[in-house]
Amino acid sequence: MAASRWPLVIDPSGQAATFLRYQDTNYVDTVNPDHMQPERIRLALLGALRYGKPLVFDLREVDLFPAVQRQLEAVQQGLAQELLSRRLLEQDRYLSLLRPTDGPEYGPTQFQESRLAQFRLFFVTQVRWPPAEQLQVLLPVQVQLPSGGL
């Protein structure tokens, strides 16, 4: 069961979010209203699927997991559960996210199994004790910083 859950990186220092922001990821800052627009989330998700990249939702120090779920639902009804359960990756279900205006780089034939297999979803939080619902739905990963100097 744990292996099927996406990680919730618990890092009160914020260093994990900073690290992920500067990697080759599709990064969504959930505190930024522009990042939380349904169309922006849809394109971030599609791009991560298409190019085999991680999609990172940075929840910062606020409990914005319910807001992320609402915005996923605004993209497409049932999307939050489909994504969290990984069902979106089965039987080309992600193709339902495509729109005629997306352009040729997002044509159905542009999605490759090898890249889809590289897709990852991360939630990062600075909240030391996330709500129980998040801990049940996601796989909590606690970041431990070294004590003292290096």
Give an overview of the whole structure.
The chain is α/β, with parallel strands linked by helices and about 150 residues long. The protein has one domain: Rossmann fold (3-Layer(aba) Sandwich), CATH 3.40.50. It is about 30% helix and about 15% strand. The protein is built from 6 helices and 5 strands. Strands 2-3-4-1-5 form a 5-stranded parallel beta sheet. Helix 2 (about 40-50) packs across helix 3. The longest helix is centred in the N-terminal third of the chain and has 14 residues, at about 40-50. The model has no long low-confidence stretch (mean pLDDT about 95).
Summarize the main sheet: 5 strands, parallel
Over the alpha carbons, how many angstroms does the gyration radius reach?
16 Å
The pLDDT mean sits at 93
Strand content: 15-25%
Instruction: Count helical runs.
Output: 6
